[in-house]
Specification:
Elements: H1 9-59, H2 65-101, H3 108-117, H4 119-147, H5 151-155, H6 157-176, H7 182-194, H8 197-235, H9 241-283, H10 285-297
């Protein structure tokens, strides 16, 4: 699929699923290889903390519990932070390699190398994002408060969230694909968004709402099924209620997390396609390349 291409509102949504249909196996295979160890480490430490907490609460003992608790929580927070950076950066880096090397012409080693080469840039970007996020969140809350004056305004909140998410994603994608500094890419991201504002923010909003509705429905369904199963277990006087509850809750948490990660990956593919489409519309990169190719052929 051609990334630098001017897309309509419908194309921004349909091309997301077309891309995943054509490249999904390669994308998710590498996603699991790169992100999988961090996801597994996070789940293991979280479940261990949960089991340890339940056991100590039930036994009413407090020996060295605070020490272990804070240590494990610290480990979980570190793993979660690393997982967030890697997951958030994976799709823009994947698309960057896809654009440079072509469909399926790069391996996991290429992706890992790209992460290593851009590690410093990503850390600097995320540190800058914290500062930008703190400052912009004040404006975001103010705008949402103004919108909340009317019911119609409240219905516009998803557009505000979509704009905010797209702004950060465009900034990261541009940062990885250019020599701009972290602050420049945030200003440039505004320009990209407004180059086709309604179709860009509209497509983001539609997919954001659809994915969140799907995640909510699946999460509720899983919890209801597990709840019914657990209730039936209690009614049958299961002997080890504590261990059973830990297992059930752990399974629920794992399933919900995996579903959310999968849905999030679809959404981020959409955001990244919007970036390439907006950049083509703004800078005519692919058009200029075609002109240069024709000129060189003559």
């Amino acid at each position: 699929m051609q990334l630098y291409k001017i897309r309509t509102f419908g194309d921004l949504i349909s091309d997301t699923f077309t891309f995943l249909k054509q490249n999904g196996s390669h994308y998710y295979k590498n996603f699991l290889i790169v992100c999988g160890p961090f996801i597994l480490a996070y789940l293991v430490t979280f479940i261990f903390l949960f089991k340890y907490s339940i056991t100590n609460l039930n036994s009413q003992t407090t020996d060295v519990f605070p020490i272990y608790m804070f240590l494990i929580i610290g480990i979980i927070c570190f793993i979660a932070f690393m997982l967030m950076i890697i997951m958030y950066s994976f799709t823009p880096i994947y698309y960057k390699l896809y654009n440079e090397k072509g469909e399926g012409n790069f391996t996991t080693a290429d992706i890992v190398t790209a992460f290593k080469n851009n590690a410093g840039k990503m850390i600097l970007f995320f540190l800058t994002s914290i500062l930008v996020g703190i400052l912009s969140i004040i404006l975001l809350v103010l705008v949402m408060a103004i919108f909340a004056i009317t019911i119609i305004g409240i219905l516009g909140w998803p557009l505000i969230f979509a704009f905010y998410i797209l702004w950060f994603n465009n900034a990261l994608a541009e940062y990885l694909n250019s020599s701009k500094n972290p602050f420049e890419v945030f200003f440039y991201s505004f320009t990209l968004i407004f180059k086709g504002f309604w179709k860009n923010v509209g497509a983001t909003t539609i997919l954001l709402l659809a994915i969140n509705i799907i995640m909510f429905a699946l999460n509720i369904t899983i919890q209801l099924i597990a709840g019914v199963g657990f209730a039936n277990g209690l009614s049958n006087l299961m002997q080890d209620v504590e261990n059973t509850s830990i297992v059930i809750i752990s399974i629920i948490y794992i399933l919900i997390m995996l579903i959310n990660i999968f849905c999030y990956s679809i959404f981020q593919n959409n955001l990244t396609l919007i970036y390439f489409s907006s950049k083509e519309e703004l800078e005519n990169i692919n058009t200029q390349d075609d002109i240069d190719l024709i000129g060189s052929a003559e």
